Amino acid sequence: MELRHLRYFVAVADYGGFSRAARRLYVSQSALSEQIADLESELGVQLFDRSRLRTVLTAPGELFLKEARKLLSGADAAIKVARQSAAGDLGEIRIGFFTGGVGPNFPRLIQRFRQSHPRVQIALHEMIPALQWKALAEGTIDIAFTRRLEVPYSNFLTSEVLRKDPLYAVLPKNHPLARDVVDVRALSHERFVMCARETSPSLFDKMIELCSEAGFSPEIVNTANVWSSIVLLVQAGEGIAILPANTLQELPKTGLVFCPLKQKNASIDLVMAWSPDRESTVLCHLQQLIREAGGKV
């Protein structure tokens, strides 16, 4: 039994006969009669009483008609859902982000996407970059706003740079260098408070790279998992820190100065990452919105 058998059966019942139904379906009457006969043969039940001038349903045919309508309605709904999903108008998208990466424009972009895709369910998940990469690999999120991917994730995930976040030196106000632009080479004798590599490997490695290029290895006296704790440690006199400029906007500034670094490569990438194995139309629509916004998340 196929859906066309059910559609033919319902048409004959609705139009009260094979002749009218055949004209409506644009098939020959003989072909329609053959299809209904095949259906009755498969069911082992006579659905129509053909002994009268007008074709009428038998008692089993009446009951079968109700169920056939339900099946066809369900099939039509399934087809509609599939087409809406293919068009990106229906579905789900799970978004990973981290505080200090996305900015004030991020919630506005998500609201715009909600308005343009009201039938798409959006799930937002805050997680550190390393956990975002793992979630993308495992398929528990669909897209991540994160730091540059590292091996092995960079081997099978796709990413696109949205912006470069400049790095700033976080110094006590009474520090001799707390004036304007700071050359990393002038920090060679400083004690450093750094973000734990487990939390943000990209930032940790970038700081090591900058110090190495400046000709020294940093003396790391403490590490922390969140930006606010790093700032607190600098305020407490533990040492100095280097952080992305966008993370400093919401952090306490009491007793501190934030100075840009002189080096041209003193920045860290914010990227949009996803798995090419799980691309969808909904995902493409969100990516398009982000690109149209110039990557300003």
Descriptive notes:
The protein has 9 helices and 11 strands. It is an alpha/beta fold. It folds into 3 domains: 3-86, Orthogonal Bundle (Arc Repressor Mutant, subunit A), CATH 1.10.10.10; 91-161 and 270-292, D-Maltodextrin-Binding Protein, domain 2 (3-Layer(aba) Sandwich), CATH 3.40.190; 166-267, D-Maltodextrin-Binding Protein, domain 2 (3-Layer(aba) Sandwich), CATH 3.40.190. Strands 3, 4, 5, 6, 9, 10 and 11 form a 7-stranded mixed sheet that branches. The chain has a two-stranded antiparallel sheet with strand order 1-2. A hairpin with a 6-residue loop joins strand 1 (48-49) and strand 2 (56-57). The radius of gyration is 32 Å and the shape is rod-shaped.
Secondary-structure map with pairings?
Blueprint: H1 3-15, H2 18-25, H3 29-43, E1 48-49, E2 56-57, H4 59-86, E3 91-97, H5 105-116, E4 120-126, H6 129-138, E5 143-147, E6 158-172, E7 191-195, H7 201-213, E8 219-224, H8 227-235, E9 241-244, E10 256-260, E11 267-274, H9 281-292
Helix pairs in contact: 1-2, 1-3, 1-4, 2-3
Quick recap of the structure?
The protein is an alpha/beta fold. It has helices at 3-15, 18-25, 29-43, 59-86, 105-116, 129-138, 201-213, 227-235, 281-292; strands spanning 48-49, 56-57, 91-97, 120-126, 143-147, 158-172, 191-195, 219-224, 241-244, 256-260, 267-274.
